[in-house]
Structures are given as C-alpha cells and as structure tokens.
Amino acid sequence: MNYDSKIEPGRVDTGNHAHEHVAAGGSGASADPLAIDTEQERRSRRWIWIVAAVVGAAIVAIWFLVHGGSKEEAAGTGAAQVPVVTVVVPGRSTVAGEITATGTLGARRTMPVGSVGEGGEVREIRVDAGDWVAQGQVLAVIDRSVQAQAAASQAAQVQVAAADARIAQSNLDRGLKLVDRGFISKADIDSLTATRDAAVARVNVARATLGQLRAQNARLNIVAPAAGLVLERNVELGQVVGGGTGVLFSLAKGGEMEMLANLSEADLAALRVGVEANVKPVGSGRTFKGQVWQLSPVIDTNTRQGTARIALSYDPALRPGGFASAVIASGAVVAPMLPESAIQNDAKGSFVYVVDNAGKVHRRAVATGMVTARGITIKSGLNGSEKVVLRAGGFLNDGDKVKTRPAASTAN
C-alpha cells in the first residue's frame, strides 16, 4: 500500500521537505519529530528578524522627526547649548594695607634693681611681683646695725672737732686783743690763726665722713628707681646681698608693655613709626590697640628678619614672655579686587577668565595681593575694566563661547 495515499484526515502537511523525508523513509515509518522542531525554529528566527527590522525603522523615523526640523530650529538649538556665565567688572578699590606678624610680649622699659651699697642681710621685703610701686619706695630693708653704730661714732667725732675749733677760735680772739699791748708777737697770732683753721678743717672732714656713712646706710635699702610694676622678685628674707648679688627685683617702668613683632625685610621696609597695630595675645581672646614706636635698625643675618616694637598700655592679660600675633597697618593700596571664586590656580600659577566683546573667554595670568574680607586684590594682570568670570571658571577652556550676565553685586 502507498504511504502517501494514507494521510489521515485533519493532519496538516508540514512542508515539502518533511513530506519528502517521510516518503524516503519507506513504508510503515512515522514522521521524524526532530525535523518538525527544526522547521519551527527557523520560522521563529524569521519572525524575530522581522520584528527587529520594524523596531529599527521606527527608531530611525523618530530620530528624523526630532532632528529633522528647519535650519532655524537647528540654529536655535545650538544657541541654547552655549553656557551662561556670571561676570563681574572689578574696577579699582582702595584697600588698607595690613601686615601680619608674630612675636613675644615684654615690658617696654625693664628696670633691673639690685643692691648698690655694701650689702648685708635682708631683714624685710615690702613688695612682691605684681605690685605697683612709686619712685623711691623701699622694696626691701637690709640690716644696718653695724653701719648705724659707725655713723653714730662719726657724729661724735664731728662734735669733738667742733669743740676743738671753738677753743682755737677763742685763743685767736684773745691773742688779737693782746697783740696791740705787746704781750704777744704777731708770730704768735699767725700760729693761733693756723691752729684755728686746722680745727675748722677737721670739723668739715668729720662732717663729710658722717655724711658719707649716712649715705651708705641709706643705700643699704633696696628702693624703686621709678614708678612702675614689679615683674619679678628674686630675693628672700635672711638672704645676704651685696653689689655682686645680681638683680633682686625687676620692674616695668610705668607699667608699659610692648610686643616684639618679627618681620621680614620687605614688611619692615613698608612700615613707619607711629602706625597702629592690633595685638592679640595667645589664649586671651582679646585684641589690644597699640602703636609701632620703634623699628629695628638692623636685620638678623641668620633669620633675615627685623623687629617692630609695638607699645601697649598695661593690662593684666599682657604678660611679659607670652606669645602674641599682630595686624599692623601698612598704608592704602589701590588695585582691582575679586572674590576668591573668580581666581583659578594650576601649575602655571594664578589666572582668571576674561570675556571679550565677541563673547569668548580667554585665560589671563594674574598676581594676587592682600586677602581681605571683601576679596583678594590683584597686583598685576588686570586694570579693573575687564569682564571676569565670577564662577564656574574650572569648567571653561580658553576660546569657549559663552553668554554673560552681570553679577548681583561687585567687589568694589
């Protein structure tokens, strides 16, 4: 019986290739399932390629709809992509010059006080560090028991010499009355006169010696040479002091203080005597107004620095030996000023972006000056009339096209 003549009702012929394969298989054999699956896979691939082609065509059509506008629309789109930057015209500002320095605090005029007499044992100390004293005030009392006896002895010698002088004068007076009567000669009168003169001289010598002893005794006490503040006390009760003992008290004349500010050669040359300075001691949190009263006439050869001495009024917060910082006025500077955001820095140095009349940005090298609360001064590179990009300079390149808008406020 022929296989091809017995196709069951309802069965669908899957294709010529499958039919031929069945016919070649001989009578009584069923259809190959592997061949049927291969045919279905091929049909599925054809449908996938058809769908991919349709999707690609749709994408191309959408792109042409979006980008296929008129030339005017394309030009408008290009203009919208030009960045908008904020610019500022710095002008020229007058800025008070300032120099910052550090240094130490100290007494403006320090007075070391020691023993100027022959010395002795310290019996009493009347002041301590931190006390205010007047000129001539006794700071410490030295034992003077021996010196007092010596002065008393010399005072007695003065009285003896005075008595001898009175006797000599009386003898001379009597001789003068007798010489006219011829009882004594003129030679005797000369001898009496010499005796009287010698007695008077001995009185003067005794009095001078007494004055010397009293002066030495007065110098035994340690006294203040001028009014001021006691900074240091280096003596104790019972201590034996003398001319070689050293400094017993250290005083600040008038209580005046100063700051020794260390400055470079250039900063020192920019200052003058009389300029104001604000001094802030470390740890006090306060600022004191002072004035430069002396500039160092020499420069240290090792540090290449000099000293500016800033006079300060007394205050308990100003402790000699303490560390402090100072801001010193150094005159006015007229220069362009820009906010920090406008200044860029790289390996070549500081620069800004300037916008020309054609709307293009150009890099401009600048030299910065003083930093203030209002901005940074520009020492060179700008004359103040340029349009300078205020922000976003880091995203620009030399020659970029930009649109500008003025800043709400400038650094003038």
UniProtKB/TrEMBL annotation:
For this chain, the family text in UniProt reads: Belongs to the membrane fusion protein (MFP) (TC 8.A.1) family.
Q: What is an example of a GO molecular function annotated in this UniProt entry?
A: efflux transmembrane transporter activity
Species of provenance = Novosphingobium silvae
Compositional bias segments (type: Basic and acidic residues):
1-22
InterPro entries to which the protein is assigned, alphabetical: Beta-barrel_RND_2 (IPR058792), BSH_CzcB-like (IPR058647), RND_pump_MFP (IPR006143), YknX-like_C (IPR058637)
Q: Where is this region: Disordered?
A: 1-33
Q: Where is the CusB-like beta-barrel domain?
A: 261-330
Q: What is this protein called?
A: Efflux RND transporter periplasmic adaptor subunit
Q: Which Pfam families match?
A: Beta-barrel_RND_2, BSH_CzcB, YknX_C
Q: Where are the transmembrane segments?
A: 47-66
Which segments constitute the CzcB-like barrel-sandwich hybrid domain? Answer: 120-245
Keyword set for this entry?
Membrane, Transmembrane, Transmembrane helix
Residue span(s) of domain YknX-like C-terminal permuted SH3-like: 338-403
Q: Which GO terms describe its cellular component?
A: efflux pump complex
